[in-house]
């Protein structure tokens, strides 16, 4: 059975990353997908299926659907926990796949549960904020995706779409900084939740350009997944999940890797 390393992240130290180093994480992620394809693509398929359920429920309530789909970015890091576990076991040369996923989820680690609840709370807050903004300030009710495009996105004289994007960014940025390496760190080390989050923030603050590149990659891939009738998520989710593990590994000080 896989055991967690006892040592914590020493004083929260992180390594300096190269500007385009995030691209190497994608390459390494693809190698992990090839070695554990069933469990990897299953994560993407489950999240795509969940997205279709959300769309089916809220299709005629696009004031709600817009926030629900964009809020996916906020909760995705915890949903990809099984992918981090697979990459961890592959890196250690241990059996990896469904067994990795089962071990990490069946552990009911209170740190992961707590972090998941916090991300869910952030996602719910964004859904409610998005719905309130669109409902209160749209010139006429936004019911369908066409209404959203016509009344919100394409309205040249309005400010609502810009405000919607700005508020979403203000919420997404701290969530990204808090979670970018925190969850892989939690499953790999015996470390407190607060220390993991602070280490994640330190990673972003000490590597703003590489982390900015990574944020753009995550956003771009996710938009591709969402705009492909969610089918692209089957591929996007495992790519980003496995790559996040390597983002964490590359941030470790040389003596701790």
From TrEMBL:
Transmembrane segments: 38-59, 65-86, 112-138, 158-187, 208-237
InterPro entries with a match to the protein in the record: DUF2189
Name used for this protein in its record: Putative membrane protein
UniProtKB keywords: Membrane, Transmembrane, Transmembrane helix
Pfam families given in the database record: DUF2189 (PF09955)
Protein's UniProt keywords contain Transmembrane: yes
């Amino acid at each position: 059975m896989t055991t967690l390393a006892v040592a914590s992240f020493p004083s929260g130290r992180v390594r300096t990353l190269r500007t385009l180093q995030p691209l190497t994480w994608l390459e390494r992620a693809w190698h992990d997908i090839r070695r554990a394809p069933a469990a990897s693509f299953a994560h993407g398929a489950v999240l795509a299926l969940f997205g279709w359920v959300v769309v089916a429920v809220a299709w005629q309530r696009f004031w709600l659907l817009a926030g629900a789909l964009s809020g996916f970015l906020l909760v995705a890091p915890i949903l990809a926990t099984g992918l981090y576990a697979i990459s961890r076991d592959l890196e250690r040369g241990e059996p990896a796949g469904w067994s990795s996923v089962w071990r990490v989820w069946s552990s009911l680690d209170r740190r992961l549960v707590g972090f998941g609840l916090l991300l869910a709370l952030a996602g719910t807050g964004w859904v409610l904020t998005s719905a309130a903004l669109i409902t209160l300030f749209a010139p006429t009710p936004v019911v369908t995706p066409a209404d959203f495009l016509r009344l919100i996105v394409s309205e040249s004289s309005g400010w609502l779409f810009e405000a919607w994007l700005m508020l979403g960014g203000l919420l997404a940025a701290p969530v990204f900084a808090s979670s970018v390496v925190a969850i892989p760190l939690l499953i790999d080390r015996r470390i407190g939740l607060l220390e993991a989050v602070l280490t994640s923030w330190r990673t972003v603050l000490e590597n703003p350009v590489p982390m900015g590149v990574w944020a753009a990659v995550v956003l771009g891939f996710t938009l591709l997944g969402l705009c492909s009738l969610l089918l692209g998520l089957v591929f996007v989710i495992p790519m980003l999940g496995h790559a996040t593990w390597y983002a964490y590994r590359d941030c470790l000080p040389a003596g701790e890797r």
